[in-house]
Amino acid sequence: MDVGLGVLLDAARLPGARLTDLAVRAEQRGLDLVVVGGVQGGLDPLTVAAWVAGATSRILVGVADAGVPPAPDTGDPEQPFPFVVDKSLDGLGLLSGDRLLRGPGAWSVAVDSTIDAVKAAAGAGVPVVVAVRTVHDVDRVVELRVVDHARRPASVRARRMPGIDYEGVPDVLAAGVVEPGDSAYRSVASTYMRGGAPGLVLRATTVEEVAAAITFARRHTDLPLGVRSGGHGFSGRSTNHGGLVVDVGGMDGVEVIDPDRRLVRVGPGASWKRVATALRPYGWAIGSGDAGGVGVGGLATAGGIGFLSRKQGLTIDRVRAVELVLADGSPIRASDDENPDLFWALRGAGANFGVATAFEIEAEPIGDVGWASLALVVDDVAEALEHYGRVASEAPRDTTLFMMIGPPRGGRSVMQLYGVVDNADPDTIISRLTPFARIGPIVQQSVTVSAYADVMDMTDTGPGGHQGVGEPVARSTLFREFTPEVARLAADAVASGGVGILSVRQMGGAIADVPEGATAFSHRDAGFAVAVLGSNARRVDAAWDPVRGLGIGSYLSFETDQSPERLGDAFPPPVLDRLRELKRRYDPGFLFRDNFPIDPRPADARLEETAR
Amino acid sequence: MTDYGHDLIFGTFVTPTARNASDVVDLAVLADRSGIDLVTFQDHPYQSSFLDTSTLLAFVAARTRNIRVAANVANLPLRPPAVLARASASLDVLSGGRFELGLGAGAFWNAIEAVGGRRLTPGQGVTALREAIEIIRAIWDTDARGDVRHDGEFYRTDGAKRGPRPAHPISIWVGAYKPKMLALTGTHGDGWMPAIPNLPNGAASYPDHNARIDEAAVAAGRSPSAIRRFGVLIGGGFGGTPRGLLDGPVEMWTEQLAGLALEHGVSGFVVATDDPSTTQRYGLEVVPAVRELVARERG
Ligand SMILES: Cc1cc2nc3c(=O)[nH]c(=O)nc-3n(C[C@H](O)[C@H](O)[C@H](O)COP(=O)(O)OP(=O)(O)OC[C@H]3O[C@@H](n4cnc5c(N)ncnc54)[C@H](O)[C@@H]3O)c2cc1C
Questions:
Q1: Where is each FAD-binding PCMH-type domain found (chain A) (predicted)?
Q2: Is the pLDDT of residue A611 over 60?
Q3: Which residues of A touch B280 (CB under 8 A)?
Q4: How is domain B9-298 classified at the architecture level of CATH?
Q5: CA angle B194, B256, B185 (to 5 degrees)
Q6: In angstroms, rounded to a whole number, what is the distance separating the alpha carbons of residues A196 and A242?
Q7: CB-based contact (8 Å) between A461 and chain B?
Q8: H-run or E-run covering A215
Q9: Is the pTM of this model over 0.80?
Q10: Measuring CA to CA, how many Å separate A605 from each of A413, A563, A595, A601, A612?
Q11: Nearest CB partner across the interface for A46, out of B55, B154, B164
């Protein structure tokens, strides 16, 4: 839609829960605006607008100014003070992150939901809203948008970037495309870790749309191409500057397809919190990482080291099938029986082979778990790291505590431990945690018996859209154990100030039950995944290079350095050779090359390129 | 030992600073996730550095799951009763019954006048509040017939529509300090919500003030246990050494709060803090411990 398209909710007629559903749906389907209207007798429009703003994170929220008389009769119990109404609208602007539109002049209302009515209303040059009463109505409004996509006004076209065929966006995608001049752009430009300014974001919600997006991308191979699911990639490659982004965040279904096998079909755009919440009523869980906000697509194609990995394996170890769209635009399914080579590659290096559109994953039964978070003060970081390493290596598989530590202040560092004891019995939980608690004096602790879904909820980043800025800098190294040498050099790196945070994820257990080579993900003998974050790449490398030398490899999900060396750290030569061969088969044109690209060309051609 | 037989409610009191709008919301979300029952915000519309409390309550309710929300307390002189009743009922519907109404007669009259409100004496404030409570309850009462009519000293209407109907019976908690206001709380309120530091003798004022509320309630034919007793306290922090009220180790907090419950019949605790870790420890550690201790002592 040229000027923006949205829905009008009548607060006087719709039940409360429906109002919320409709607003959330409008946001999910990529509409620009939800206007809360209503006359006396129903819910208070201003209250509904504030609620809707809270229940959403990106969509604009419109509310009509009541237009109260300037000098109210203070004895009239029904007459609000203009000052207070004004203040509440201002406050709502602040709370919503500037998503408030004050009407009624800021939008125009289409008389009905036909395309002609929408076009007529668009003449006013402000966003058009269509009254809706059901979720189905919202979907119909989304379809209206498709018809009129290409003719954006000059002000929007003026912000287009070079080299992109904006007018040639296929019709099936038109509903979801966002270009720099669109009102939704701000909410899709950046990711969690990285600021970005892509030239075009193609939001796809069906396999057909993903295929169309890939076909479109193939006409733009000179531009960066990002693939985005949950937008939590450490390397931030799911956004870029001036390129394309294929965003499958809207494919976020979670559906149990075979209760006997506990088989769950999950869309790439679902967050792990959403997965956990959906499985909670079944008493099942699928392990992921430590953060509920992370998306399925990025994690389930790379590994997935989480609170349940020591018992259940990596997330990819629970994946039974993946459906994706290949570089040539064709949909394909991969499992142990169908395209097993591809299935192997997708579990560790998935981003190089296509855009995943669905995962079938086997869940595990789970009861309540112990959720712990401890802060300890340590004087000697090296000793504490070694101590943590020892305790973690000896812990049973039901116990997984991740760790974070920063540079010392006043000679002491605070070590944060957080994680799960997969057992509901308080005494067991305490006995599992006790060895960790002995690492140093505790300054803060909380231990609760929680549903696994609550753990994912507590570690969610919350709504708000991704507003990352700048370039993230992270380095990732896997270690078998925290030997005294590893601990000492890692402590030095932290003390040097070059590394801002050192975070450690405990591995081992069931991760190592899967034979090396069974998936593209390598280094199953690792005991710990270490990620360091900093702000300056040169300083981080200077601090971290000595430590990296003691590692056995890398987990790319915590790495931002796109150089071929890092790819080699993640995949040992035979694995990388096999990946390259498969890349030649499935992506010979090197379309998917933005995030740790595996160059399909033979070594000499690559060398020539590097020399130039 | 005084005991009005209520379950315990644990709340927080967060400064609604406009500059840090997202921090304010985050504190409420954290309170919700930490098992706290209630989050409250002061309401001073003339205070330009604060967010508007009504919209903040609605926004916060949408971002949280279990926690109840309330103003502490709504500023009646700038919140006309029918407007307040409708906004309250609307939020109660949207949030599935998580709204309660903290209500006060107002203070800072210069500021109130400056933005269009009318100045009332303390005595007038009591009457206005009584009228307001009657109007609010009438707006909520959608089963009654006809429009709401009210011909009072401070509010007049000869036909306000009823509704919307709240999702649950919303409690009205009154911020009262002076004898007449305490009596009104006893006759019309569902709760008494004082800030302990503002009571003339701090927590030692409870016996006297409770008695006034009890007497007024009984005289009006109500049971004293119809009125929940609150205490708003400053959350100092969790230092290792006991330093004062809610400033020291978890065990000390636990004993102090349980003491208020067991000695004075306080069943609603509202801790003022803008510190995330204090909020979290209060919810995760103090709240369960107080519940347990009080349950044990109550037998
Ligand atoms: C706060 C935080 C905590 C984390 N904790 C953990 C942890 O405990 N354990 C762990 O293992 N990881 C963890 N991670 C890393 C995380 O798993 C990866 O960053 C993951 O790639 C994010 O997935 P996403 O879909 O949200 O990200 P996106 O940014 O959307 O995607 C990241 C990359 O994955 C690829 N990709 C995305 N979608 C698809 C798709 N549909 N098909 C094919 N390729 C795709 C692309 O290359 C893309 O650049 C954490 C990340 C963050 C930000």
A1: 193-366
A2: no
A3: 446
A4: Alpha-Beta Barrel (3.20)
A5: 20
A6: 9
A7: no
A8: helix A207-218
A9: no
A10: 49, 17, 20, 6, 11
A11: B55
Predicted local distance difference test score (pLDDT) of residue A1: 41
Ligand 1 atom with minimal separation from the A248 CA: 41
Across A125-139, A195-209, A244-258, B43-57, least confident range: A125-139
Scan residues 95-114 of A and list those with Cβ closer than 8 Å to B: 95-97
* Residues 51-90 of chain B whose Cβ lies under 8 A from any Cβ of chain A: 51-52, 54-63, 78-83, 86-87, 89-90
* Cα(A581)–Cα(A608) distance, integer angstroms: 19
Q: Where are the alpha helices (DSSP H) in A396-523?
A: 426-437, 452-458, 484-495
* Per-residue tokens: B144: 């009654």
Report the pLDDT value the prediction gives residue B242, as an integer from 0 to 100: 87
Percent of the residues in chain A that have a pLDDT greater than 70, as a whole number: 94
Residues 6+ apart with CB under 8 A from B1: B262, B263
Please state the ipTM of this predicted complex: 0.96
**Mean pLDDT of the A400-426 span:** 93
User: Within chain B, where are the H helices?
Assistant: 21-33, 53-63, 81-94, 109-114, 122-140, 179-188, 206-219, 250-264, 276-281, 287-298
In this prediction, residue A68 carries a pLDDT of 57
Mean pLDDT of A604-608: 67
**pLDDT at residue B169 above 60?**
yes
Residues A77, B58: C-beta atoms closer than 8 Å = no
Report which of B186, B187, B190, B272 is spatially closest to residue B237, judged by C-alpha positions. Answer: B272
Asked if residue A351 has its Cβ within 6 Å of ligand 1, the reply is yes
Which of the 8 DSSP states describes residue A385?
A: H
d(CA A597, CA B24): 42
Residue A251 has a pLDDT of 93
Centre of ligand 1 to C-alpha A288, Å, is 10
Maximum distance among all Cα pairs of chain A, rounded to whole angstroms: 87
Measured CA to CA, the distance from residue A228 to residue A238 in angstroms comes to: 5
Q: What's the rounded Cα separation, in Å, for the pair B36 and B279? A: 9
CA B228, CA B232: separation in Å to the nearest integer? 13
Please, are residues A178 and A131 in contact by the beta-carbon 8 Å criterion? no
Q: What single letter denotes the amino acid at residue A237?
A: R
A432-478 per-position pLDDT tens digit: 999 999 999 998 888 999 999 999 987 766 544 566 778 889 999 99
Closest ligand 1 atom to the C-alpha of A271? 26
3-state helix, strand, coil in chain A (%, to 5): 35, 20, 40
Nearest CA in chain A to B288: A448
pLDDT in tens, A3-20: 789 999 988 888 888 899
Describe the crossing of helices A16-28 and A45-55 by its angle, rounded to 10 degrees.
Answer: 50
DSSP code string of A246-286: EE-TT---EEEEETTTTEEEE-TT-BHHHHHHHHGGGTEE-
Intra-chain end-to-end CA distance of chain A, in Å = 45
Tell me the nearest-neighbour CA distance from A182 into chain B, angstroms. 25
Angle between helices A45-55 and A82-95 (to 10 degrees): 10
Give 3-state DSSP helix, strand, coil % of chain B, rounded to 5.
45, 20, 35
Give me the mean pLDDT over the B173-193 stretch. Answer: 97
pLDDT in tens, B77-116: 999 999 999 999 999 999 999 999 999 999 899 999 999 8
What's the gap between Cα B72 and its chain centre?
Answer: 5
pLDDT at residue B41, rounded to an integer: 98
List of chain A residues whose C-beta atoms are within 8 Å of the C-beta of residue B51: 91, 94-95
Q: Of B208, B199, B262, nearest to B233 (Cα)?
A: B199
Contact (Cβ atoms closer than 8 angstroms) between residue B58 and residue A54: yes
Can you tell me the distance from the alpha carbon of A496 to that of A200, in angstroms, rounded to the nearest whole number? 41
**Nearest-CA residue for atom 1 of ligand 1:** A291
Closest by alpha carbon to A327, among A589, A594, A601? Answer: A589
Q: In one letter, which amino acid is A62?
A: G
